[in-house]
Design a protein that fits this description.
229 residues, Rossmann fold, globular
Amino acid sequence: MHGTESLLAAALACGVGRLVFSSTAAVYGAPARVPIDEEAELKPTSPYGQSKLAAEIVLRAAASQGLGVTALRYFNACGADGACGEDHEPETHLIPLALRAARDERPVHVFGDDYPTTDGTCVRDYVHVVDLAEAHINALERLPECSGVFNLGTGAGNSVLEVLGAVETITGRPVPRQVASRRPGDPPTLVASHARASEVLDWRPLRHLLQCVSDAWDWLCAHPEGYQE
């Protein structure tokens, strides 16, 4: 975190007064209750979540020195916006994996079908990247008066099988799948409470799962090789 501390010191020295930090729901780990609010215990189970929590702690210290700071804890970011889409190597996110499976007729793995959920698969909260971008604008406009941490999610979850069904609806193609063993540390359900963001930032997610999938599919069709093109 020394790099983060140095960056913040430079920002303060240059008179930067506002900072919006992209954090993650991974700071909560496996929560005791759902939907998850910002008062839930912070116990990340992954290095990614641990690093984001460490950055939040450093930012809290900077806030005491006069920097207006907001940390936005994303749940499952997805979708696309025009020429900007999702392309990782290796890809680990469900929606792009399912879209590739539909396109290439190669199975996507379903990690566990025996969870205590409606269909036995994990439930996650999928939030469109454009909704996330709008939350950043709202947060920046309200700093430094409205600072703190805010969950960004839809407040409603979708199971893995529901996501695969949405992909089949949008693409008109079947999504081949293979059931595999559970992944260690995967909680059954992760769904956000965005009540604080709604009240303080005047933010509400406007885009649903089908639009997330549709936008991501349009981007993949326009960029079949991803950003390598």
